[in-house]
Amino acid sequence: MLASMTDTKMTVQKSKRLAAVDLGSNSFRLEIGRIEHGQFYRTEYLKETVRQGNGLDDNRNLTPQSMQRGWDCLARFGERLAGFAETEVRAVATQTLREARNRDEFLGPGMKMLGFPIDVISGREEARLIYQGVAQALPNTQERRLVIDIGGRSTELILGQGHQPIQMESYRVGSIAWSMRYFTDNQFTKRSFQVAEIAAKAVLDEALMIYPRDQWDTAYGSAGTVNAVVDVLVAAGWPAGSVTQEGLDWLQDKLLLAQNVDRLKLAGMREDRKAIIGGGLSVLRALFDLLGIRRLEQASGGLRHGLLQDMFGNGQQHIDLRDHSVERLAAKFGADPVHGQRVGRVANTLFKQVVVGTADQRVTRKLTWAAQLHEIGSHISHSDSHKHGAYILDNADAMGFALTELHKLSQLVLGHRGKLRKLEADFEDAMFVQQLLVLRAAVALCHARRDPDLKGVSLLRDAKNARQFKLKLSNGWVKAYPQSAYLLNEESVAWQKTPWSLEVVVG
Questions:
Q1: Within a 13 Å sphere around the CA of 299, how many CA atoms are in the beta-carbon half?
Q2: pLDDT, tens digit, for every residue of 483-494?
Q3: Using N-to-C axis directions, what is the helix angle for 361-373 and 337-354, rounded to 10°?
Q4: CATH class (in words) of the domain with range 124-306
Q5: Are 207 and 171 in contact, with CB atoms under 8 Å apart?
Q6: 247 closest CA partner among 284, 222, 216
Q7: Is the pTM of this model over 0.85?
Q8: Domain 2-120 fold
């Protein structure tokens, strides 16, 4: 494992350029830079106000219009990223696509237009990346930091010290969501600000226990709403680089004086911010009051900078975190680590026999993780452990993982035993099918919870039909391990009800 991590790190560090794509609820952003003497330098920054956050209908589906706006932007980003290698680009999506029930309908074409995978990340993973991006632009001191990022549909709060995040949470409150809900018809009234603040405090109330005033020294604000507020205050003559309660009061008075968005004329206020400033300001005022903030320092880093740090600045922290998350989940739900490692070794041995060419290290890592986690549901119920394990993974906050990665793992855990038709998985995904097939075979071979004898076992892929596999067992092996042979024959029957086949051959 150390060798694979080193190889990946060297690949990233040999690259002369990196790019990060942030699909936010309000804007899509692309940051491109070059690496010189171990440092990242921005060479290009593109931002488009896509406003997908207000493109969710009452059923939490993205409207066709909002999807088209996103696709158009991703196509333009994709043209700019032509020629980049996959190791040089990372794209993530946040709250709007976390919520959207039809996100796959958007992501499929979106990834083709961008030319790279798009990971939908959890709220806590977003918070981790935000803190990482903020911390890289600050001195590495022992200062205790509270970092706030008010986005379009979510707000992230992070406690950290130096470069290390300690407590991370994401709350479903943001500038777009609150503007749509409490500032209807783009009107600014005392009543709307009062109700919006109270509602924000109701959502953020538990933050008072997690982020009390005595737990941090300095509060920092990242991106979005904070930058918009600072821009207006600076244009009006307030000190640059920070926000105070007096500044927030002054800005609210200006919005009330304007009465509505159409009449709002403030130096420093961008046109694309006018329609959502009411909601963003309400959330920020709620946080000031709730957490006792007197002064909020403007931070220059954010989510996309955290992505770049993961890709280069911190080496393989992203991969390390996923390994740690898998170990933590396995330990939390009482999975046997020795047995998980055993199943992983057998599954990877079989996988190497059928994969065309050299096994991709990223694929084998996912197979190893699935093996380590395949029994986490046993803590809840032995008979339906695979179902409970899949549910845990689909609803877990696992640091370093995208939601799409966790769902793939959940499908492997769900499918490691029992009937295959219960899976939502796409049986046209050849790599997933191969992972699932070898994982199921490994679980069967390790049924006695000891290392199996693999000398009389070989897995072959049909040269003429890529969907047909043959599991060859020697006569002596079948006689020595009749229960294992029986379980493998049962596997052959299970695969008959799919577009793929597994034939057990004895001889």
A1: 30
A2: 999 999 999 999
A3: 140
A4: alpha beta
A5: yes
A6: 284
A7: no
A8: Nucleotidyltransferase; domain 5 (3.30.420)
